[in-house]
Write a structure and sequence with these properties.
162 residues; mainly alpha; Ferritin; 5 helices; single chain
Amino acid sequence: MELYPTHNDLPQTTREQIIELLNARLADAIDLYTQTKQAHWNVKGPSFIALHELFDDVAESVEDYADLLAERAVQLGGVALGTARIAAEKSSLYEYPLSITTGREHVEALASALGAYGHLVRRAIDVCDGLGDKDTADIFTEISRGIDKYTWFVEAHLQAEK
């Protein structure tokens, strides 16, 4: 991987590994954003407005997380790989079910996607720590806290039925 020159003092091999990781999670974030918008646009049922607004809040935050990841990749001398085509090709997330409509179905699907992304982000924290990049680990930690919060918000709609 060819990097742009930078005065960042992380070793080039570390930056290359971190940029690859950032771009992998960026693809997932873009996919998660579009999955969340899919739920936002198509949810139906008695909890429509609450879920419609919640899903939009989640999407806005995930879009912010994608921006953090992309900007960090560029800060390290890399290129942010954030097109829809790249995200579709590289995302680690399962495909969002397109035939669902009810609030419960969207809550279950989105909670699953958020949980999967949260797991990947927590693994990224450990990788960054192991490579000595506390700054990128901190970005992933911020994203992890947000994803955990939204997983809780979404799952609360299922837990009420217990």
